Amino acid sequence: MYYLAATLHTLGVQMRDTAIRKATKDPERGSVTIENVIWAVAVIAIVGIVVLAITNFVRDKAAEIR
């Protein structure tokens, strides 16, 4: 009888801990990662535009030398 009571008590404690863990989980957990990805894409786009501008400038100056 004690074994059954101990088993039920352990099961109840585990279920309570699981419910508390799920209820208190942070709803904005992945927002930092998404924000970092957006910033990385923006930085890559800006760097691409700068490289394109510098490449065009250098090609124009090289064309003037010929």
SSE diagram, text form:
Blueprint: H1 2-23, H2 31-65
Q: Would you write up a description of this structure?
A:
This protein has 66 residues and is mostly helical. It has one domain. It has two helices and no strands. The mean pLDDT is 87.
The succession of helices and strands, N to C, reads HH
Distance between the termini: 99 Å
Radius of gyration (CA) equals 30 Å
From the spread of the alpha carbons, the general shape counts as: rod-shaped
Total number of beta strands: 0
Which class do the helix and strand fractions yield?
mainly alpha
Transmembrane segments: 37-58
Keywords: Membrane, Transmembrane, Transmembrane helix
For the structure shown, list the relevant keywords.
66 residues
Please give a quick description of this structure:
The chain crosses the membrane at residues 37-58. 86% of the residues lie in helices and 0% in strands.
